[in-house]
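Re-run with default settings, no changes from the original entry. Doing this only to confirm the output is reproducible before filing.
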Amino acid sequence: MTLESNKELVLRWLKMGKQGFVGNFHEYFTADYRGHLAAQPTQSLADLVRLDRGFAASFSDISYEVADLFAVDEKVVLRVATRATHTAPFYGIEATGRRVTITGIVIYRFADAKIAESWGELDFLGLFRQLRST
């Protein structure tokens, strides 16, 4: 795949996210995908499916504002702001109805035209502050 096609796959992945992560994750990720999110344990593809669909179950109206998207060798770097409305319980916090923003940077490594590994730094502390503010 080309650098442009790798970037296009990431953008298609975001489109799937806007639709609530309904669809086949295997179109985007290798079967042996490994995810690294801050200090969390390494995630498998099954973990990613569970986490992303859990987020989509708690937040509606998901949208993404891509600030940067570039590719070098087998990697694509994404800097993004995710916006969503908190409409169902999330990690013990009842729905607040608040519109929230989560900023983040994710590096995707590609193999065989799919995402094989990712490293993400997402502002979950900022998210929880938005959900708990009065």
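The longest helix spans residues 3-18. The chain has a mean pLDDT of 95.
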